[in-house]
Amino acid sequence: MDRHQEEESHIEKQDDEEALARLEEIKKSIEAKMALRQNNLNPERPDSAYLRTLDSSIKRNTAVIKKLKQINEEQREGLMDDLRSVNLSKFVSEAVTAICEAKLKSSDIQAAVQICSLLHQRYKEFSPSLTHGLLKVFLPGKSADDLDADRNSKAMKKRSTLKLLLELYFVGVIEDSNIFINIIKDLTSAEHLKDRDTTQTNLTLLAGFARQGRVFLGLPISGQDEDFFKGLNVTAEQKKNFKKAFNTYYDALAELLQSEHKSLQQMEKENSKLVNAKGELSEDSASSYEKLRKSYDHLYRNISSLAEALDLQPPVMPEDGTTRLTAGDEASSSGAVKDTSAPEPVWDDEETKTFYECLPDLRAFVPAVLLGEVEPAKTKDKSSESSSEILESQQTAEDTTEFPADSGSMADVSTVEQPKEKDEVDKEKAKDAKKEKGKEKDSDKKLDSEKEKGKSLDVANFERLLQRLPGCVSRDLIDQLTVEYCYLNSKTNRKKLVKALFNVPRTSLELLAYYSRMVATLATCMKDIPSTLVQMLEDEFNYLVHKKDQMNIESKIRNIRFIGELCKFKIVPSGLVFSCLKACLDDFTHHNIDVACNLLETCGRFLYRSPETTLRMTNMLDILMRLKNVKNLDPRQSTLVENAYYLCKPPERSARISKVRPPLHQYIRKLLFSDLEKDSITNVLKQLRKLPWSECEQYILKCFMKVHKGKYGQIHLIASLTSGLSRHHEEFAVAVVDEVLEEIRVGLELNEYGAQQKRLAHLRFLGELYNYEHVDSSVIFETLYVTLSYGHGTSEQEVLDPPEDFFRVRMVIILLETCGHYFDRGSSKKRLDQFLIHFQRYILSKGHLPLDIEFDLQDLFANLRPNMTRYTTIDEVNAAILQLEEREQASNADKGSVERHSDTKRPGKSSSTVIFSNGKSTVKDVGENGEAPKEESDSDSGSGSVVRDGQNQELDDGNHDRGSESDDGDDYDDGVGPGSDDDNEFRVRQKVVTVDPEEQADFDQELKALLQESIEQRKLELRGRPALNMTIPMSVFEGSGKDHHHFGRVTGDNSEEVLDEENGEPREVQVKVLVKRGNKQQTKQMLIPSDCSLVQSTKQKEAADLEEKQDIKRLVLEYNERDEEEANGLGTQVSNWIPGGSRGNTRTYTGEGSGKGGGSRRFVYHQGGGGSYHSRRK
Fold first, then answer.
1. C-alpha to C-alpha distance for 1048 and 694, rounded to whole angstroms
2. More reliable by pLDDT, 78 or 688
3. Average confidence (pLDDT) over 440-445
4. Counting CB atoms within 10 angstroms of each CB, which of 197, 337, 360, 501 has the fewest?
């Protein structure tokens, strides 16, 4: 998978580099054109003295002028060097004539521009002469040589000349733009519309001019060309004239196309009547129809091309229900016209239809001589010439035979002078013959050398063309290559081309459609190419089928797909396709199944939707399904057959009915799935609060549970909305948590592959709910353990969590990545450490992990516990878990022994123990100076000031909503402050006598029952929030006027006793202990050293409270100032909500805490009358 990603990234990088290289090339070419235009507009022509130093001989100049007739990109540099070394001052007209007569291709235009620029910069009279010579091509009446030229060659010459004129104007060789106005007026003349061939030629010329000369029409120019065309002197009046001529001509063409379409429809109706009446169509009618249809298609394509160049919409013709009609057997086999009620067209979309039906017309791009269409005319001319020569020789023989009979008197005179005349004539003839033979030998040698050079060039060009063939993976590329091949057309090259097309790589099946298009395009002019290729494919198919070996499946698939693609271009007859399919169905085993399915996937849909083959294809498909039901095919082959069948003949099904939701539900979905963003969360929350809650609560909850349908990165926004809504609807947050936990549980029970994305989203949602303090850490750890252990040890373990399924590992990773970074201190840190050890055992039980999960695990441990040991074997992790369990048992035993020892008291004395637990100090019952009177100890036995477990638990529950995971606990390190139930207690350990295990078990059982009974009783009591730091009742002071400062607390049964500090002696502090005897409250005095931890902690707490009050005062003032700024439009929005108090005042608290994990957590708490915001970040 990683290799595939690397390959994709490498390919994307190559594409980016190629795009940058192309942009650089375009930029350089534009810069070169701009520099060339400046040189041409301001030429520095050499003087006559310099020109006289160059070679001005006739021989050298004639050789250079001959080279000008064969301008191309390969010879450009050499030709320019020759032009720089000769003086053509006396041969400018000859050079212009040679350039005008040169047969230029599109690729040779730039080379011709460079050469013309060089001549323009040297000779002043070159540019006017060249312009006049090139314009003769568009004025056939002034050039007698063009009257007998071939029409296609003239069209090609006009196209290349117009391109050359435009390029010469762009680079400044030609400065008068009025010549183009005359050319366009001539091409858009309404008289040419009467001649269809001339109209087609003019359309291609005008489309090319509109694409290349957009600046003349005032059309927008994109890219870097805009700067280049700004320097052209094209006035607004000229642009108006150009545009007017084009628009007028385009309107006339649209009318002509409409009339052609109507006449075509009329002919189709007449032909359909003839077919219905006689059963067939005559050849004359069919040929005239085909001729009109081709003419219409050609005209429509050219008009569409012109409209595209002019940024106009092509004309839309009304669709008709008829199809092309042919004569002979094809007409009778098709039966009649296609049924207009057929619901499905042959092609799925217009693009596919264009690819297979709209082929380029080679006669419009390539001269007929290159297509081999003029050769028959030449042979006829030769035969007629030879026959005329024979007749002339016979006539001269008859004349010579008749001559002596008529002139008898002259015979005697002629016989006297014959010997002398014969000798002279013979001598002259011999001399002439020798001269002619010498000239013929020289010319033959030159022709042979030129032919050899031409042949070597043609061979090299053709080889390069074949090498480009596999890279033609688009319609434009294959069409361009087809046109280029026509310039290299020969019998030998046709054979080589067929061989290259036939030997397409067997793994490159995507090329078959483009190769078939090339064959179909060439089939209009070169009939031997499709027939040879089809015969070769048919022979190969028969060989592969009769061989009956189970090898070379790729070659078989390539062969049959090639046949199918040619069938869609109507090169391969449908009968051949059905015979191939029947051969596969007759022996429907092994590779024949794959071959038949590939054939149906390629052209089965085309044959099924074509009216003339629908019935036969339906029968073949029925046979295919019957064979599939009879044969015992493996699942892969059965799937292949079903896919091929339903691809050709899709099952009938009703249209999908979209769910209709009420407008209110649509608005809720829009808010949550479309509008919810980080910047818009406040507005979304306001809109949700404005909704009728009783009606929308259930649907909002349903939408919240569909977090997997939104963006994964916005799940925390849904959790933030939950927090904001819980401020006003507390039951909503509870319902959200319940639903999330239920969905996670259902996912574990079902373990469906299609619900994996949903399950991951719900786990992320649960983690975000913990981050917003809607879930306790115990819920997170319980979910983690359930994820690892659910279904294990049951009969459904193989279904719920198979060994090869690693999805639960990914679930744990997602949940810990979301909220695990908060478990870095206190008891939650220990619990996470313990879980990670169990998690490693689960991972090792799975075996080898996939790379992506392994990388995610490495990132998880690096973020949460970078120093934790990663175990590599099951034995190591089992030993670690066993050691962990032993430590837990030992710590539990120590706790139990300490608790038992603390319950046993010595007679006559009471021990004093101060316990700091969760940031609160409790002082057990002690006597003054360590001794207590008997009466107090007796009376305190039932109602003394010893802290009970139930009361201590009640205080903790009342003060810490999240237990060890409260915000106060997060602000301290391990072992200090709230957040750790085990590490934050100071206990006095004493040596305890070993207890019998049976007695210990009995004691534990009784203690458990006692605790359970106490818990049940406490549930029935009204639980009020215990008062912290209560003031001392005034009655206990007995009129004392001293100022008592509160600093600590001693708890009794009612949790209401208070300690006061008296500023007396500096070393000891006198305190009063409030005790209760019966219904009376009494005080006892006791001295505590000033360096005692109770006194120090109380002083520190008072100092911290004073500092906190000052900070709150300062922050309140700052908040009021910020409130005023927000009223002036300078305030900022707060993103997250949590439930807050209901007081009407406003309070803001900001703090930071750090722990051993190396991270820090930042709290921002704002409480106001309308709600409260809360965020916690690390």
1. 49
2. 688
3. 58
4. 197
